[in-house]
Amino acid sequence: DGGITQSPKYLFRKEGQNVTLSCEQNLNHDAMYWYRQDPGQGLRLIYYSQIVNDFQKGDIAEGYSVSREKKESFPLTVTSAQKNPTAFYLCASSGGASGSYEQYFGPGTRLTVT
Amino acid sequence: SQQGEEDPQALSIQEGENATMNCSYKTSINNLQWYRQNSGRGLVHLILIRSNEREKHSGRLRVTLDTSKKSSSLLITASRAADTASYFCATGIYNTDKLIFGTGTRLQVFP
Fold it and tell me: What element of type H or E holds A23?
């Protein structure tokens, strides 16, 4: 059963704590992406990776960090430096550069920081 | 920054009616994609239209692209209550590996 999994579905943290969101795919896709979605808004790109051990900042990378040690995995850490971390986080993958390929999305993680 | 702007922001129709959503963008694109999002869920890819294409069909979906006006439209024919969702356009930008998403249209289809 191929696809993208994100865990957990809901995550609650206290302000000042770092938190890591998991994203795994078994689609054998090279490219993976992290987006943030705020209520009633579109998606904003946080980080993306086209290949293992390489990643690039998106439009809103401040306060976030990522790693890409394995093709299947692209975890996102929300650090205490992120001013407004409460949001819905979506991970996606694609078979190639998104200029030419569709993206496949995971179910999302809703993070609440109080 | 968000490149795509959808219009209208929200749309309510009765089952059986057609729903039309529009997307405008600002820069040159490689392709334009439409996605659907049910409330609180991930996005699902609907259709991709390349910059050299003008129209594409998939089931009850019809997408048009006018690169001279930098705009696209998504038509859902004979809508069903199950079509209730938010619909986003996303543009694949030349010389980048990114998709830029619009702000979305919330479609409500009443039975």
Answer: strand A19-25
